[in-house]
Every structure is written in C-alpha cells, then in structure tokens.
Design brief:
This protein has 12 helices and 30 strands. It is α+β, with helices and mostly antiparallel strands. It folds into 5 domains: 1-43; 84-107 and 329-415, conserved putative lor/sdh protein from methanococcus maripaludis s2 fold; 124-243, Beta Barrel (OB fold (Dihydrolipoamide Acetyltransferase, E2P)); 249-324, Beta Barrel (Elongation Factor Tu (Ef-tu), domain 3), CATH 2.40.30; 431-572, no CATH class. The strands form 6 sheets. Strands 4, 5, 6, 21, 22, 23, 24, 25 and 26 form a 9-stranded antiparallel beta sheet that branches. The radius of gyration is 41 Å and the shape is flat. The N and C termini lie far apart (88 Å).
C-alpha cells in the first residue's frame, strides 16, 4: 500500500514538472517575442529611394520629390558598427560584386605610364601667306585645304591700284637714272617693300608699260592647312590668304593628369604607337610641358617633336604614349582603378570587413600616382584589406539606402526627429535671401488665416501678394534645389490665385508648404518664432504641414470642421 502511494506521488511530480517545462517556457518566451516585434516596429525608419538623405520615423511622402517613403533596411546583426552595413547574397550575385585582398607590391622604374594623345601640326613650321599690298584677288591658284605647294609657286593674282602709281614713278625715274640715281633707287626699293622681285621690277623697266595685276608667290614649301580668302575678295596689305604648314615635322601632344605631373620632365624618352601602324613603334623625347593646368579636365599637356618626312603621321591622328615611371623602388599598396569612386576632392573605396559575411564599410583614401589602370594608395587602406573591385556603385547605393556613409553623403543619413530639421539635411541659406523671403511671410500667414476661415476670395488676394514679393527675390545665392523650390512655390501661388474653389486652393496649399519648408527649415536670421504644424488627416489622410506664427493649432485644411486637428512638429527660432 505504501509503495503504491509512493509511485503515485512520483508520477504526479513528474507530470507537474513536465507541464511546467512545456507550457511555462512557452508562456515566458511569448511576451519576449511580442516585445521584440513591438521594438522592431518602433525602431522602423523610413527613407526615399531617390533621396536617401531623407530619413524619418513614420511613413509618408518624400519632401523633395513626393514619392512614397520605403522602409529602411535594418540589420539584425548586433555586431555591426555604426558605419557598417550588410548586403544579401542575392544582391551580391545580381550585381556581380567582386572583392580583392590587397597587399604591398614592389613598384619602381619598370612600371610604365600610358598616355593618350593626338597628332598636331607643328606651329613652329607654319606660316601665313599674306597679301603685301591692297587689292582684289583676280585668281586664286591654290584654293583647297591639303594642297601641296613649293617655295616660289604662284599662289594668287591680285589687281593692285596702288602699284599702278608706283610703276609709273619707276618708269619716270628710269629716265632720270643718270642724273638722280638716289631717286631711282628709292623708287625701286619702294616696289621691293611690296615683295616684287628684281625680275618683276626689271620687266617693268624694260617694257615701260604699267601692269595692273601682280602675282603672289609662296615663300615656303608645305601643305595648305587653311584657305583664308577667296577669288573676288578685296584684301588689305598684310591680310592672310593662305596658311601653310610644313608637315615634315609634327607634334604629338598628350594629356597628363594632375597626380601624374611629377613623373615627367623635359628630355624624357617617350615611346609612341598608333592604330594606323600597329606593328611599328616610334621614339621621341618630351620637348615641352605646359606651365598651366587645364582647370576643366585637370590635365597638363606635354609635347614631343616627331620626324615626319615619310608623312606617316596625319594631324588629328590618335596616338598612345608610354613613359617609364620615375617612382622609386619601394613597397606600396596598389589597387585597381575600378575600386575607386570620385566625389570631387574625395576618393572613396568600399572594404569588406568580414571574411564570412557580405558586410561593407566606406573608406576615404588618398591616391598617389596612377600607373596604367591602377592607383598607389598613400593613406586610408592597410595591407590585407579586402576591397570591392567590381560593382562599387551598387555597394554605394546600398549604403545610401541604409543611411550609412556613402560617396555623396559623407556623414551618413540624418534622422528627422524633434527640432533637428524638417528636411533631415542642412542647406546653407544666405542672409540676404532670408531677409527678402521673410518679407513674404506676412501675406503668407494672412493667406493661412484666410484658409482657417474658409474664405476663398481672401485666400486668392493674399496668395497674389505673397507671389508678387517672391518674384522680386534675387536667387543668385541659392542652390539648384532652392531655386527649383522657389520657382515651384511661385507657380503654385499662381494656381491658388487663379482658383475660386476652396478645396482646389487647399490642394495647392499642401504642395506650396512642402516646397516652402525646404527653404524655411534652415533659416537662422529670423527675429521671431515659427511653428511647423501638421495635420495627419489632411491631404487624403497622408498628412499636410503649414507654417504658423503661434503655438495654438488653427487648421487651414479643414477650418471650423476640424479647427484644432494637428500638432507642432518643429520650431524655428
């Protein structure tokens, strides 16, 4: 009997313990799970796919483009730092993202620098064939570009009225040659100044007849690079007729990037190849380095003179130059050019911080000289870092969407909460613009109060006054976004003015306030306090904002129907 009681007691105890472990543990974990869901929901942030700098705590529309906000991708990995972000394996595969571990490499004189260049005319071997006297071109013997001419060849025939009188003086002076030899020589020298040859002058003397047309002869041999006059043109003394270039020597000019300038000096050998003659190599030496930098391309031009007696090179032909690097033999970090993203003064590389997971982080680097398709890293990376070498732009886009540091957002996304700024970003607004803009605030507030009273005619009147003031504001100090928002505000105010239906006016008022807030949110020169208020039920339950000079809520979107619907979401002091 006692044994049965003991067995029954043991069975009951086992049952109680089993029930506790089965049901008790479930109950204890369920609240934790619910709390986790609530925490996840509470921590959810929203951003714009086109403007990732817009980050806020609740869904809505982008304040720049109006697109619906999307959830910010958040990582469940608690070990990520604030600047790190994670991508999915699927995204990695679709974008063909590739990474490479970098290490110190020996670099030195054996590394060549490849340059792109172009064949140019040798300006030192060019000359302009000009008219040496006033007249009209009766015939142009050389009249097309590329024509070959020889020194002494007849280029043109010109009718020259001034030479008619000079020839008559010569004929008269010939008869006085014995008695007044000085006068005779002076007349001949006058004709020589007009580039008449001794044969031409002697022909005039012997014939005793005045010629009306005179020939112009080439003073150099070469190729016509430009025809600068035409038959029938009247030309002045010294006016160009032809431009002639001797192509027996030419220039090969190359563009050198700013960070490569230190690698070049005059007299340095350069090997040249061209697609026209792929099996041949030409050698030259650097004869000129442009002392000024092209500020648009950030390049400097270097030049070499090439012998072109066989006329293999044609002006305009593309060539490639190779110059031995002057970098001292040393161990340096070398990375592919495809890994670098440029943002003006900044150079950015993405590194993979985990060997087992696709976790990335942006890293700013300082670049050294470029050698071919690679860059020397002076600062920012370490030996053994694994960097993105293909698909860097895709990785950067993922960083932007997750609100991390990125190529165009050095500080990462900023959350739009409390008084940190309505747009979630800072834009400088000049003092003069703030002063001019605030003069339009009075009629704007009157317009807002007219909306509160549902008085459409008064709304139109104050909208017109506001618009008139905004049109007078100078925009020279504004950014492109600020100019766009101001222009849109003026257009919307026109629509409010020209509408007599209150509901349509209120629809335009929603868009007007979104544009105005881009400008007003960063004002710091106001002498009053402005309250940014929002009604979540306006704009078809999407929410709408407005500017008020008082803390109390007077709803301009519903008037008496919902006069106090809304709240203050920001304060500008």
């Amino acid at each position: 009997m006692n044994k049965n009681v003991i067995y029954i007691g043991i069975a009951v105890l086992v049952g109680l313990l089993g029930g506790y472990f089965i049901f008790g543990s479930n109950n204890s974990t369920q609240p934790s799970h619910n709390n986790h869901q609530e925490e996840t929901t509470a921590d959810q942030m929203w951003t714009c796919s086109m403007h990732p700098q817009i980050i806020q705590e609740e869904p809505g529309d982008c304040l720049i483009c109006g697109m619906d906000l999307i959830p910010v991708e958040t990582s469940t990995d608690g070990h990520l730092s604030v600047d790190q972000f994670k991508m999915t394996e699927n995204a990695m595969a679709l974008a063909n993202i590739q990474t490479t571990s970098i290490s110190n490499l020996v670099t030195g004189d054996e590394n060549g620098i490849t340059l792109s260049g172009k064949i140019m005319e040798n300006e030192e071997a060019s000359a302009v064939q000009a008219s040496y006297f006033d007249g009209r071109i009766e015939r142009l013997n050389v009249n097309y570009k590329g024509q070959e001419i020889r020194k002494g060849q007849k280029l043109a025939t010109i009718y020259a009225p001034d030479l008619v009188a000079a020839q008559q003086e010569l004929i008269t002076a010939v008869s006085l040659k014995e008695s007044q030899p000085i006068l005779y020589k002076a007349v001949r020298n006058k004709l020589k100044l007009w580039k008449l040859s001794n044969n031409q002058i002697n022909a005039i003397e012997s014939s005793g007849k005045v010629q009306e047309n005179f020939a112009i002869y080439a003073t150099i041999s070469g190729t016509v690079s430009e025809v600068m006059s035409a038959e029938g043109d009247y030309v002045k003394q010294g006016q160009p007729i032809l431009k002639v270039t001797n192509l027996s020597t030419i220039w090969a000019e190359f563009d050198v990037y700013e960070n490569q300038i230190a690698q070049f000096k005059k007299g340095q050998q350069i090997n040249i190849t061209t697609t026209a003659y792929p099996d041949r190599k030409f050698e030259g030496t650097i004869s000129f380095i442009d002392p000024t930098l092209n500020t648009k391309t950030r390049t400097v031009t270097i030049r070499t003179n090439l012998n072109n007696r066989d006329h293999l090179f044609k002006p305009g032909m593309f060539v490639t130059g190779s110059v031995a690097s002057k970098t001292e033999i040393t161990e340096q970090l070398i990375i592919p050019a495809s890994a670098v993203l440029w943002t003006g003064e900044r150079s950015v590389v993405y590194i993979k911080t985990s060997t087992s997971e696709p976790i990335f982080e942006m890293r700013e680097v300082v670049l050294g000289n470029a050698t071919g398709n690679t860059y020397i890293i002076l600062k920012g990376l370490n030996n053994g870092d694994e960097i993105v070498t293909n698909g860097a732009f895709t990785v950067d886009a993922a960083a932007q969407l997750q609100g991390k540091k990125s190529m165009m957002n050095k500080e990462g996304g900023k959350t739009m909460t409390g008084h940190e700024g309505h747009m979630g970003m800072q834009m400088e607004v000049s003092k003069s613009f703030q002063k001019d803009f605030l003069s339009a605030l009075t009629p704007y507030l009157q317009m807002k109060n007219a909306f509160v009273k549902s008085n459409a005619p008064q709304v139109a009147i104050f909208a017109k006054t506001t618009n008139k003031i905004l049109k007078t504001i100078k925009t020279s100090s504004l950014t492109a976004i600020q100019k766009t928002k101001l222009s849109k505000s003026i257009t919307i105010l026109n629509d409010i003015t020209n509408n007599v239906q209150l509901e349509k006016q209120r629809t335009h008022f929603v868009a007007l306030n979104e544009n105005l807030m881009t400008l007003v949110s960063d004002f710091n020169q106001i002498n009053t306090t402005l309250y940014i208020q929002k009604c979540p039920m306006a704009n078809n339950n999407k929410g709408a904002i407005w500017i008020s000079e008082e803390n109390e809520i007077y709803n301009p979107y519903f008037g008496d129907a919902m006069l106090t619907c809304g709240s203050v979401i920001d304060i500008i002091k």
